[in-house]
Specification:
By secondary structure, the chain is an alpha+beta fold. The chain has one domain: SH3 type barrels, CATH 2.30.30. 25% of the residues lie in helices and 35% in strands. It contains 2 helices and 7 strands, in the order βααββββββ. The chain has helices spanning 10-13, 27-46, and strands spanning 6-7, 51-56, 61-66, 68-72, 75-78, 82-85, 89-94. The strands form 2 sheets. It has a 4-stranded mixed beta sheet with strand order 1-3-2-7, with helices on one face. The longest helix is centred in the middle third of the chain and has 20 residues, at 27-46. 19% of the residues are buried.
């Protein structure tokens, strides 16, 4: 990832369109992402801590700082039932 992600609000994330397709190229990176999403979901529900989620649409790379409430059915759910497909997530980092 060479481009600096565009900061976006949680609410504006709801208006984005996500293409299908995996953004990570290897199994190690996908496993690491899965573990970080699982941990971030736990921390979001127990301690209400926010994380920085970097994700890719068809044209841009964005970053949203929010709490992950649920990881289900190939999507992560944010407050307000806003979803981001897991396969479009590049990274999840604690703030």
């Amino acid at each position: 990832m060479t481009a600096k992600p565009i900061d976006i609000s949680r609410l504006d994330t709801a208006s984005l369109v996500f293409p299908s397709g995996e953004v990570l190229s290897n199994d190690y990176a996908r496993t690491k992402r899965s573990k970080r999403i699982h941990s971030a979901t736990y921390v979001g529900n127990i301690r209400h801590e926010k994380v920085a989620i970097v994700f890719q649409t068809e044209t841009d790379i964005f970053q949203v700082q929010t709490t992950i409430w649920l990881n289900y059915g190939g999507c992560i759910y944010l407050k307000g039932n806003i979803t981001i497909p897991v396969e479009r997530v590049l990274s999840v980092d604690w703030l």
